[in-house]
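Problem: given the chain below (413 residues), write out its structure.
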Amino acid sequence: MRRYRLENGLTILILRDPSAPIVSYHSWFRVGSRHETPGKTGQAHLLEHLMFIETKSLAEGEFDRVLEAEGGESNAATWTDWTYYYENLPASAWKLAVKLESGRMNGLVLGPKRVASEKEVVESERRDRVEDDVDGAVSEKLYASVFGRQHPYGWPTIGWMKDIKAFTIADTRRFYRAHYAPNHATIVVAGDVDPDDAVRTIAAAYGHFPSSPAPTPSPFVVPTLRSEKRIDMRWPTPTEKLAIGWVAPGFAQRDHAVVTVLTHLLAGGRSARLHVDLVREREIASEVRMSLAPFREASLVDVWVSLREGHRADEALRAIDLQIARLAKEEVPAAELDKVKNGLELSFLGGLETVPGKAEQIGFSETVVGDPSHAFVRLEEYRSVTAADLKRVAAQILGKDARTIVRVLRGRA
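Solution.
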């Protein structure tokens, strides 16, 4: 992999992979919902929508039409620490991505009617995915309760509804100018390309773009919970549900890898401890899952349980407490730990089998950690996790005094 940096601050990472005649072109921006401010949440997500509409050189709808005519595909994503856009194309047409993405970085058209229209789209998306969806509503409640509604990780990436409605076109243009600049971006090119030609092409397209002063980041304080929080939500659901969240280390810290192994040990499949206990043996739950956010500064690890009819959330909570207490007292048998680690390694390597998978991992690692090859550091961290590590982390992170519990009870909100 080669790294280049233009005078205006644009970082270029190129991985030549001639295994197939395709190229994956990624544009990663160091901007996400954590770079917003209270009262202006959801701007990063709204701007991601608008980036697909119109540029100075392409009329509305032309971006997708031109790309698809060459056999390409595109998409994008926004979360707390980043926003990225990608195109996957035949190698013979990869330079089209340079034209399209450079046009979006420095020539986006933000007209009043289109911004107003896209705000309505986002409002509808929020109603569908959060306000009318129990999973989305509970997740939002959990993050806001753990980190706080005024914390950069506490507000939702989609934004609070009142903020979305209040956006002005001036807000959107200001956010675009501040964050969509070459010194806040990394271009990743993976696939069947000549690195020297790729650098020349990208430099010619982007090299004259002006950099932008780095916006003053919002103060970031990792919350410390000293007592358990309990929240009850009423929802028209046929059965009760339970969510539990704890603050966990940021992605670059080794203990993030340890917690990842722990979540898979507890809820990473049908043979995982919580699934066996709650679903198969006790038969009190229909689903148990865990997740760990890959955030830069701090993360959230959570457990989600859907109860069976006639069973209560507190039953699941007691069972989970027993399993966590067991982890904090007893070392995991070597065979069980090896099985989990082997599964994680297989999944990790599977994600690097494709050219787009490699490009995404490079872009994410560079943007969140500052090291494009951090994926291999993470792989070694998985391999190095010991039973003692799991015992220590279970005791330090998953304590009763450091958790937030959300019970979803049957009924109307």
